[in-house]
Amino acid sequence: MQFASFPGSYLGVTKEAATSDIPSGLSDSVGSDSTISELVQEIKPRYHIVGTKGIYYAREPYSNVDAVHVTRFIGLASVGNRDKQKFIHAISPTPASTMSSMEIAMKTTNTTLSPYTFVEKSTSPKDGSKRSSDGISDSQHWRYDVSQKRQKHGAENGNKLCFKFVSSGSCPRGEECYFRHNSDAREQSMRGVCFEFLNKGKCVRGPDCNFKHSLQEEDDRHSSRRPGSENIRSSRSKECWFCLSSPNVESHLIISIGENYYLALAKGPLIDDHVLIIPVEHMPSTLSLASESEVGLFRFQNSLMRYCKNQGKEVIFFEWVSIRGTHANLQAIPIPSSKAVMAVKAFNLAAQKLGFKFIEKKFDSISDGRKFLSTQIDGNQSLFYAEIPGGTVLLHHVEEKVKFPAQFGREVLAGLLNMADNADWRNNKHSKEEEMKIVEGFKSRFQEYDPNC
User: Organism's domain of life (predicted)?
Assistant: First the structure.
């Protein structure tokens, strides 16, 4: 499903909403409409597309009041805009009627509370003038303490914390801010304590929240956050090749899009059908997402294994998780079944040459193996792991000052397949037209296995 922004456009689909204006409460940086805010609160769409503000704007998913699913908001720029902002966006939503309750309720680690929870239902003209003169365009401030929150009596907000100050240590409103700039709360937040817990004494996310719900001592500072959560928030980049919201994403490489993951052709593929499983959200590793989100990953893995099995092949999955990494991608490379039995030995020999030894474990299922792997991330070390046919998982922790070849997994398989020339992806680059043909060919072969078709 594709949405494009044309002047005066209004599009609407069941459980995916498209409106001509932005609802109030969503952002201070652009004009907004309180009527649409009320409408969106009522219908609670899974996707909300806006097309006539002339700017591109992708918000982090937010939870809904009295509904288990999250909403993703996307504002599209005008077609042919001078700033070359994104004006078209493709989504591949799975019908809710075909999803399990667990799949519908899945949330990503960067899911926020509903922005409408804090927006006043009605405001006086005087309040409106304050908003227009406020001039605050900080892209994060609206999460909890946007100007719309201000009420006639500032004292009502006096005991509430300023999210901007707690999260970053500073607030652009300074002394004019109606919320508390509390250094102790800031310190607790740095130790991984949930903002909602600090602000209200409780958290509506409950077990879905990835942060602590108790005050932490100094010694707990480095172990309190979910592994990788600090990197998740700090490493988001508009320049990211893999972010679907980025103007730099090479959308012609995309094969299939699910709720939390999408499948794409690898750039300079080692062999035919070499693909990447990529989180839709900007995450440092596929192990950083909440366990509920892995349903989409398992679907792609199982589908790829069935697809390759039909061709007499097995699939090896591997990922290089760097503490300086940006957007995660799990590589999936099919190899002949006759070669797959030698994969563990090939990886171990390569490790021996580099002077380390893999942690080798065997599991009955992919999910069991990944549960083990998710416990191995501490945010202070990089790691490499490979999932080998038969349930074997190979894991290597890499110390911060130790150099490790980022293309290690690809190089090992290039040697196993006697394709040393393709060990470097740049040696097997294709033109955009060639890549489009390869993607279309794969789509046609993979269609009957695609979990999102």
Answer: Eukaryota
Using DSSP's 3-state secondary structure scheme, residue 245 falls into coil
Q: Which two tokens stand for residue 146?
A: 């946007």
Structure tokens at 115: 């922005």
- List the alpha helices (DSSP H) in 322-452: 337-340, 343-354, 366-374, 408-416, 432-446
Q: Rounded to the nearest 10 degrees, what angle do helices 366-374 and 294-309 cross at?
A: 140
Given a cut of 50, is residue 330 above it in pLDDT? yes
- Residue 255: enclosing H or E segment and its boundaries? strand 254-257
Threshold 0.70, pTM exceeds = no
- Pairwise CA distance, residues 389 & 341, whole Å: 8
- Say what the pLDDT of residue 247 is: 78
Question: What Å distances lie between residue 260 and 120, 277, 382, 394, CA to CA?
Answer: 32, 10, 23, 25
CA distance from start to end of the chain: 12
Residue 202 makes CB contacts below 8 A (sequence gap 6+) with 196, 213
- The amino acid occupying position 196 is E
Q: Let me know whether 427 and 337 are in one domain.
A: yes
Domain identity same for 199 and 245? no
Could you tell me whether strands 275-279 and 261-265 are parallel, antiparallel, or unpaired per DSSP bridges?
A: antiparallel
Residues 255 and 355 in one domain: yes
Integer Cα distance of 160 and 141 in angstroms: 14
Helix (DSSP H) and strand (DSSP E) numbers for the chain: 13, 16
Q: What is the pLDDT of residue 361?
A: 95
Judge if 308 and 179 occupy the same domain.
no
Is the domain of 368 the same as that of 426? yes
State the DSSP H helix or E strand holding residue 35, giving kind and residue range, or none if neither.
helix 34-43
Closest-CA residue to 195 (of 229, 151, 238): 229
Same domain, 177 and 100: no
Q: Show the tokens assigned to 54.
A: 């002339």
Question: Residue 438 CB: number of other CB atoms within 10 A?
Answer: 19
Instruction: With CA atoms as reference, report the closest residue to 328 among 286, 297, 265, 386.
Output: 286
pLDDT tens track for 79-109: 877 777 877 878 778 777 667 655 676 767 6
Give the H/E segment covering residue 231. Answer: helix 229-234
Q: What is the DSSP string of 406-439?
A: TTHHHHHHHHHTT-GGGSSGGGG---HHHHHHHH
Nearest to 44 by CA among 59, 65, 60: 65
Are 33 and 179 in the same domain? no
How far, in Å, CA of 12 to CA of 183, rounded? Answer: 45
Measured CA to CA, the distance from residue 446 to residue 443 in angstroms comes to 5
User: What are the start-end ranges of the H helices in 113-160?
Assistant: 125-134
Does 279 lie in the same domain as 390?
yes
Q: At what angle do helices 408-416 and 343-354 cross, to 10 degrees?
A: 130
